[in-house]
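Minutes, structural biology subgroup

Action item carried over from last meeting: produce the structure token record for 2-methylcitrate dehydratase (Corynebacterium tapiri). EB confirmed the sequence was re-checked against the source entry. Recorded below for completeness.
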Amino acid sequence: MIDHEVRTRRSAEDFPYEEHLAYHIARVAADPVEVPAETEEMIINRIIDNAAVSAASVLRRPVTVARQQALGHPKAGGAKVFGVETTVSAEWAAWANGTAVRELDFHDTFLAEEYSHPGDNIPPILAAAQATGANGRDLIRGLATGYEIQVDLVRGMCLHKHKIDHVAHLGPSVAAGVGTLLGLDVDTIYQAVGQALHTTTATRQSRKGAISSWKAFAPAFAGKMALEAVDRAMRGEGAPAPIWEGEDGVIAWLLGGPGHSYKIPLPAEGEPKRAILDTFTKQHSAEYQAQAIIDLARRLRQQIEDLSAIESIVLETSHHTHNVIGTGANDPQKMDPDASRETLDHSIMYIFAVALEDGTWHHERSYAPERAHRPETVELWHKISTVEDPEWTRRYLSTDPAEKAFGGRAVVTLNDGTVLADELAIADAHPLGAAPFKRADYIAKFRELAEGVVDEQEQDRFLAAAERTSELTDLSQLNIEISSDVLAQAPQIPEGLL
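Output recorded by EB:
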């Protein structure tokens, strides 16, 4: 890996195009290096994972809205919309399928300087592949690049500190991945990366306060914009440049400012793309920092006979967990039984309370309104607070896999003064956890979430196709069709404008 220093440059400064971060990214994308077998194996796992969470979300309102919008743009020979046979323009398939993947906050994650869900690369890159007649080998190469670029940007460039949403790293990664998929030249990819970044920077208000359905739409929008950027670049159109380093660019005005520099690690020429191997999926449908906390609550449940005897619970954890999904966020909505599902899955207090009471977690039942309004749950929920522990923050940011941690320590004080404490650094399903997810676990997750939505024969067909992705010549096989009877259960949506 090569660390590239990235900082603001004055317009009058001699700053050759070949030194721009967008150019370095384009070089990585255009590199014809082969995909390692272990990278390919994990890509297939994540294709299965995305299909699983899409099946579970297909009848939810935001997904239904996105699907209906996409179906308003049919195109023969285009890309498939998840659940139906119709083909649409690639960017609209990316929109619909990206929303389905993101809706339940239940797919893969990578956390470092910034946060990300790199599986968000799959819907737009797959849509581009289907629409252009690419094969499975092309798709795997494109996805390896998408994951690599997003993970590398996340390693070196913090967005949330400056209240910029993490999808600002997704637009460039999708553009780069599609560049690899289609075998585009360096200059075209460079222009597409710049355009994609320019059109996908947004504030983090989508993840603050009363969190709305836009949280699901946000990465789908970034993927859609990235495909449009690639299309324009292929037609010869350029991008603002240098997009990150310019005097009025992203670093100068949206991130650290003219005096700040970043180090972005990128593979050297001929170096295989392995970043996906550092990412991890979710066993539970909740913000990733909640994964280990849910597992910890399940463990603590066995030690506490009477939950009504609890006086208080303090979760000692990292800066991110405390300030984004904990009481450090100062969001009263995170303690409100009437809060949206999107808000509750970003409330570690709610999540810990329900997991402690139930000893389990479910993507629907755990968020049901009647569950959130249960009096004893509300009482327990309001006894929980979080604090930042510098050691957990240090471990969160560590680059050493052996000490990197996303969990925390729970201190439970009972009414009689008894104190119980336990901690868990990483989720059970994490690659270094107690029960790391393997192919069989991804398949089991798919079977569980697809039950009652996708008939068994169609499940079998999809899994067989996914497991031989590299051999496919027809990538529509990676779409899942759902019966009209099931889709008829989706909510009725009013007519829109388009």
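Discussion: The chain has two domains: 2-278, 289-424.
Next step: EB to file the record with the rest of the batch.
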